[in-house]
Write a structure and sequence with these properties.
This protein is α/β, with parallel strands linked by helices and 206 residues long. It folds into two domains: 121 residues, 3-Layer(aba) Sandwich (Rossmann fold); 72 residues, no CATH class. It is 34% helix and 20% strand. It has seven helices and seven strands. The strands form two sheets. Strands 2-1-3-4-5 form a five-stranded parallel sheet. Strands 6-7 form a two-stranded antiparallel sheet. Strand 6 and strand 7 form a beta hairpin. The protein is elongated.
Length: 206
């Protein structure tokens, strides 16, 4: 239809101002779907395309623990008035979720919680980007890991009392060109005060 893929809808999980929405918009420029927008605005399109072998593609740039995507999908699926068309799309495997980067734990969680959604990761991070994982190879032995953990928790608590090792306590070492996930160690992205002295983040979050 005028160069567009009428049977494709591209949406995103988080809010419009987050990086996942930006990723979805960039993908939409390349694929030219017949419909794009937030999940709350695609129910009418799904209803008119139920019998047209159409696909709903949810896009996000990063999954750390999977909690944000899980909540977003639950909010989408729990909308009133879409139960019938939602079930049709799910049962026929026509709802997909593309993840640009993810941790394996997040992927396992999402596939368990939403077995009828097809999750397709582009890049899956390994142990090497988890600072305190024994398999990361950053420290020589368990004593060094424990010392590093205590130090990171001590500093991290002053910057982010709830998650001193990053959201979900992942202790990730991940930074993108335009953003840094909150799963990454707060010492890299949160400014504040440590021991009554200013702490300036190397990679501040927008």
């Amino acid at each position: 239809m005028k160069g567009k893929l009428d049977n494709l809808c591209i949406t995103y999980i988080d809010s419009e101002m987050k990086s996942g929405a930006t990723t979805a918009r960039e993908l939409a420029k390349r694929l030219r779907p017949g419909k794009q927008g937030p999940p709350s605005e695609i129910s009418d399109w799904m209803r008119t395309h139920t019998d047209k072998d159409a696909l709903v593609l949810c896009v996000d740039d990063f999954a750390g623990t999977g909690s944000t995507i899980s909540k977003g999908l639950r909010k989408f699926f729990d909308q009133k008035g879409i139960e019938e068309i939602r079930d049709i799309f799910l049962n026929e495997g026509r709802i997909l979720c593309y993840l640009l980067y993810t941790f394996p734990e997040a992927l396992d969680r999402l596939r368990t919680e939403y077995p009828k959604v097809k999750f397709l990761p582009i890049n899956v991070f390994g142990d090497e980007v988890m600072a305190l994982d024994p398999n990361a190879g950053m420290f020589e032995n368990e004593d060094e890991i424990n010392f590093a953990r205590e130090m990171l928790i001590q500093i991290g608590r002053e910057l982010d009392p709830q998650y001193p090792l990053g959201f979900g306590d992942i202790s990730a070492l991940v930074c993108f060109n335009n953003t840094i996930p909150n799963n990454t160690l707060p010492i890299f992205w949160r400014s504040g005060t440590v021991n009554d002295k200013p702490w300036r983040a190397l990679f501040p979050r927008a």
